[in-house]
Amino acid sequence: MSSGGTPKKKQSLVVVDAAHGGTEAQEPSPLKNYIFLTIFTCFCPAWPINIVALVFSVMSQSSYDQKDYDGSRRLGRKALHMGIASLVIGVLVILTFCGVYNANIGLITGKGLKNGLA
């Protein structure tokens, strides 16, 4: 509060561009490069896809640092989509592996497929 008892107002940044007239500068949106998601998906068994997602995430950070906010947003979205695809594929691979492994153990011990289908 100021000395008069009234709250101070925040001042906005105004950029005057001779070619386009005066415009209010927009704050860059916070970076969404999904680096934690892509690092987490590197532990999933979908290696080519999650490595590409990690590369897109790093490229998104690089674009943001170069003040290319649209490119950064686009690459961040690609990193998100590739990360989700990698996570889904990784979970499916793990579930398939566990199912095949348990079915083979059941066949070896004689406790699986009691109807004689195997």
TrEMBL record:
Name of the protein: Transmembrane protein 233
Compartment list: Membrane
Source superkingdom: Eukaryota
InterPro entries noted in UniProt: CD225/Dispanin, CD225/Dispanin_fam
Family: Belongs to the CD225/Dispanin family.
Cellular component aspect of the GO annotation: membrane
Transmembrane segments: 34-58, 79-103
UniProt entry keywords in alphabetical sequence: Membrane, Transmembrane, Transmembrane helix
